[in-house]
Structures are given as C-alpha cells and as structure tokens.
Amino acid sequence: MHETKITKMAKAGSVESNDILVMISPGEGKIDLEIESVVYNQYGDDIRKTILDTLQEEGVTDAKVIVKDKGALDFTIRARVKACVKRGSEQDEL
Amino acid sequence: MSYKTLLFMPGNNPGMLQSSDILGADGIIIDLEDAVALTEKDAARILVCEYLNTFEPQSDIFIRVNPLDTPFFYKDLEAIKNLNITGIVLPKVSVESMEALDKYLTENNLDFKVIGLVETALGLEMAMDILSRSKKVIGVLLGAEDLTLDLGAKRTKESEEIAYARSRIIAVSKALQIEAIDTPWTDTDDYEGLRKDALNAKELGMTGKALISPRHVDIVNKVFAPSEEEIKHALRVVEGVKAANEKGLGAFSLDGKMVDAPIIKRALNLLKMSGDYKEEYDGLLK
Lengths: 94, 286
Known about the structure:
The structure holds two protein chains of two kinds.
Chain A: E1 10-12, E2 20-26, E3 31-37, H1 40-57, E4 63-69, H2 74-89
Parallel strand pairs in A: 3-4
Antiparallel strand pairs in A: 1-2, 2-4
Helix pairs in contact in A: 1-2
Chain B: E1 5-10, H1 14-19, E2 27-31, H2 41-54, E3 60-64, H3 73-80, E4 87-90, H4 95-107, E5 113-118, H5 121-125, H6 127-131, E6 137-142, H7 144-151, H8 163-176, E7 179-182, H9 191-204, E8 208-211, H10 217-224, H11 228-246, E9 252-254, E10 257-259, H12 261-274
Parallel strand pairs in B: 1-2, 1-8, 2-3, 3-4, 4-5, 5-6, 6-7, 7-8
Antiparallel strand pairs in B: 9-10
Helix pairs in contact in B: 9-10, 11-12
C-alpha cells in the first residue's frame, strides 16, 4: 500500500450547508482526529469511520485532522478529505 | 434524446449536486468552469467524481470542462474520463479546442457526446466549421453573456442584441442536424420574462434552453414540450404517411392540406421531442 506524507497545512471544503471543512497538518506519529458536526449525536461515529477509512485509502497514517461538518453526505466527506490530503502532501497544483 | 432543459449545477457545491437529479431537467450540466473558483478546481474535480461514483443519476449528465487555453482542460478530461456520463460541454468553442477534444476522446475510446458552447464572435462566425470537426457533436449551446461581452453589446431582457446570434446558431444546428440550445435566462426571479424569452427562442427554432436556476425548469419544460393537440396531429401525419406508402402514394392530404416532406419532418421532430417517436418511423422520409 502506498504511503502519503502530510508535509504542510491544508484545507478543503466549506462550512456551507451540506458541506464539510477539512483541515489537515503534519501529525505526531498517528492520526489525531477532531470532529465538530451539526449532526454529531446522530452520525458522529459514521463521520469518523468515513474520514478514517478515506485517510487509510489515501495512505495517510500520520496527521492531525480537524473537521467542521455541516451535514455532508459520505461522498462529500470522502471528496473533501481526498482534496485536503492532496493539497497537504504535494506542491500546489490545481 | 431531445433536451428541452439543460440545468447548470456548480461542480463544487455538494448540496446542489446531490439534489440535481430530482429537479425535473432533461439533462444536467455539471460546471467545472465559471461556477468554480480558480483555487477550487482540484476539489471540484474530486467532488464531482465522488458524486457520480456514488449515485446513478437518472438525468443525462454533461460536464462543462474548462477551456483549452487554461491549465485545467486536460486535467478535467483525465479526471472525468472513467465516469458514467452522457457527454461534455466544450466552452468557447474554436477549431483548435474542438479538434483537441475530439482527438482526446478518440484516443481514449470515449463515447462521450459533445455540446459546443458558442460564446465568442469568432466562434459564432465559424460555428459551422467548428461544429463539423467532430462527429461526437450532438448540439450547440449559445452563451449570450460572454458573447455580448465579446461583441461590446449591452445585454438586455429583450435580447434584440442576440437576435442574429440565435438565428445563426439555429441555422447551423439545422444544417448539421444537431440540437440548438438557447442561452440561460439570468434573472432568477423574473418568471414571466423567462417564459417569454423561452417562447421566443422556441418559435425561432431553438430545441431547448440551458438554465441556471432550478426554479426555471418547470416553466421552460412547459414552453418546449409539444401540446397534446400537436402530438395528436403529428401522429395523424405519421399514420397518414404509412397508409400512403402502403398504397404507393407519394403525397396525400390531411384536413384538406397537402402533406409533403417538410410537414412529415416537422411531425417526426415533434414526436422525438415528446418522446412518442418509434423506430418504425425511421424509414418514413426515405
């Protein structure tokens, strides 16, 4: 499996309704995930799992991740995490 | 498929993407160009891919990529080439961009359809040549906002400044037997203005209209949909042609009027738009 190193701070997404703002920065040897969500009581565990699964798929094992969720569906969570990882691990290339 | 309504949806807006399929438009144009900020092009591509890999929209999906003269054109194509979409809307069409797109689609064995977006003076004057460059082209879309900017014309609700452009686009579309999609109505709250504008476009010969607001879908669908009376008449024409062919007659009359090739063609086009067209009608004009 490929490994992706987070080398800089990055963010993706927004705090608009149905979206999620994901912020990532280099970690301290593990994944440190903070979640703030308008639906945390109902879907907090699912959001956490989706984020961790996506980070694993992207090969990220060492990062600090903070998210502010505004009711994003899974496809949006995955997309924003992927975009954030891409931005935090390489030269800016849009 | 004839598109009465093609609704633009911003490619980086998850809320709009996830509701796009239930708004009643015949087709959706997911926009990676003007609706996406320069700093968000990468995030939009990823979001659109995740959306289309998660859901199976019932509407036909087109994606408006960025123009050839930007760094994003090929990145967009690479990102979307494996998606289950109907086609691509190519902005600011030119000979070079149409050839580049056709080459890319051919080399990658992609069966995407193409709608050319005419929105420059040069694109308008060369529309016939440009749109002939790819057999994948199924339609032409007039982009009046950028076009009037290029022309130095003031954009008005009366749209007299785009009368020539509309007529030229329509003539080219008929010559190439592709769809003519009218420019969006940009005042999201003026429904009566929208209805009049769509009706004007339809009467000139446009086959459908692009939209930027979900609230415009129903009005434009109604304007471009054939009435029950028109459908009934078209079906009577078609049945008359079949009967005449069986009797070996070249022409016949219906309600006291001679039915000839243009009337038959108009009836067939109308049935295509209404969804009442059958394969058995294919040979009626041969």
